Amino acid sequence: MAEQDGGGSILQFARFNSSVDEGFWHRLSSLKLNKLGIDDSPIPITGFYAPCSHSHVSNHLTLLSESLPTDDNEQSSTQTTARGNRNRCSVPGTLYNTNTVEAYNGLDKKSLLKQEAKKIWDDIHSERAVEESALLSRFLLISFADLKKWSFHYWFAFPALVLAPPATLGELKPASQWFTLQEAESISAACNDWRNSSTTADVPFFLICIDSNSNATIRHLRDWEVCQSDGQKVLFGFYDPCHLPTTPGWPLRNFLALIYSKWSLERIHFFCYRENRGFADLGLSLVGEALITAPSEWRDHDSIPNAVGWELNNDGKPISRCISLAKSMDPTSLAISAA
Amino acid sequence: MVLTQKLHEAFKGTVERMTGPRTVSAFKEKGVLSVSEFILAGDNLVSKCPTWSWESGDPSKRKPYLPPEKQFLITRNVPCLRRAASVEEEYEAAGGEILLDNEDNDGWLATHGKPKENKGDEDDNVPSMEALDISSKTRIHSIPSYFGGDEEEDIPDMADFEDSDNLVETDSATLQSTYLVAHEPDDDNILRTRTYDVSITYDKYYQTPRVWLTGYDESRMLLQPELVLEDVSQDHARKTVTIEDHPHLHGKHASVHPCRHGAVMKKIIDVLMSRGVEPEVDK
């Protein structure tokens, strides 16, 4: 990012970060006590994210109580209300909740990450990721819920397939400087329509097609071929949770992997979509050119690329997090505060 | 004092159960909102400022008088950036708000930030939601007693993990955060910014919207509600702003107490009407 714009610098990505609502731990506790017992098989969970909506802070992958299944079986109703919410694009994840702290510490984190990365890789090759693009941002959560002390140990991973050699950055600038005024207006309008429609609001990866009259349309990834035949300019857009003016966010990594694997493109124009107050902001949004020169076996389904993505703490160290909710869960301390 | 609060909660709960929700508008007369006016105002907020959305919350905490998918309003990840001084200057500049002066010092205008949120529910300045103007005189505190205090002893294999997994260190495509701080010193403050989730619920007893704050530190770890009070002007902490159970979310959250909301809204409405403007709940 701080390097020259003249190309050749390695394209870097800002990490995705997690945010867990207290309600998530409450529901996990009740799930554990009332339904799961000592069953520690992986649980499918749903994370939520949205494009960056403020020039000073990045958005997070958020877990809420709705991220978990309920302990009774009325899940279908909550699922339907979650769809189409523009501030909550659903991302699939896997929770490994262990029964003991020893088991938690003993988890083979490297192979768990690899396992999730393989799911992403498989979805790229089966083209499921083209149809259901949120699969590209699949995540992993390991946890140990200490229900005696009401504390929760947890660690997120956002698996990203590593391009080797890494992609280089051709150029990167605010979208408002990249496009003509007319194009920018058309793109803003198209993006706002996309975000306001309940059928597309939570589709985080998309195509921007600009015709020779500077009219922009947004299309699903599956329409890539259609865009080609018309000789339009095509950009690969994604909801960027990152706010940094010179760095694209994490979801672009697996998106580039998909684009390279599926369409064999080596020169990719990407569009980091960001908002201000809930509306498209092309001053915050970025457009860049990624140059990929991965070896040809990278396109081979059988050779799974390396993956990275365990979340770091505030000091940049890969370390497990812990939250204590005794204050809101422990009956004794609740009784004291109520006295 | 806590006991009286509990007694009041119990009393309020009983009244809420026995009285039906308000269905007839008394917005102009008393400054209160009926349930349908709350929904109308909320819909308007969501459409004007799409970072807000309706949520259904925990099914077990659902209020029967509100639609299941419109239980409360929330906007997440609002940064707390600005200093008290600059906020005050802004209030001075925004002449219109000065009329609502708070002679007894417990009107909501003087609490930086949340009054704006509160007002945003019914007033026109919805877009000002972009940053939460809470006065943060105090910088970020770490709270080892509350979070992560024992992480080192509980995770003994961390060193092995760092060694055996070539995650971060060897991946040149991952932006290193130290790199970032080193090259953009101006961003350092920003990275350490607290963020807030702001939610608005309907308080059936007071028949007004009620604003709640959930604070997070710079690594998006939950702040103890007591620490949220540090971001609130000291005149209001524990008086207008109290820490209570959220009606839809788990845990204790800081909230602007709604007891004066109706009266203050009434003042605004009177001013508007004296100027010949017809107040409406979705404006």
Automatic annotation (TrEMBL), chain B:
UniProt keywords (A-Z) are: Autophagy, Cytoplasm, Protein transport, Transport, Ubl conjugation pathway
Q: Which GO terms describe its biological process?
A: autophagosome assembly; autophagy of mitochondrion; glycophagy; nucleophagy; protein transport
The principal location of this protein is cytoplasm
The keyword Protein transport is assigned to this record:
yes
Give the UniProt subcellular location, in the record's own words: Cytoplasm
According to the record, the residues making up region (Disordered) are 104-128
Output the Gene Ontology terms for molecular function: Atg8-family ligase activity
Which chain positions lie within coiled-coil regions? none
Q: Which InterPro entries match?
A: Atg3/Atg10
Any one cellular-component term (Gene Ontology):
phagophore assembly site
Give the UniProt family note: Belongs to the ATG3 family.
In Swiss-Prot or TrEMBL terms, this protein is called: E2-like enzyme
Organism expressing this protein natively: Turnera subulata
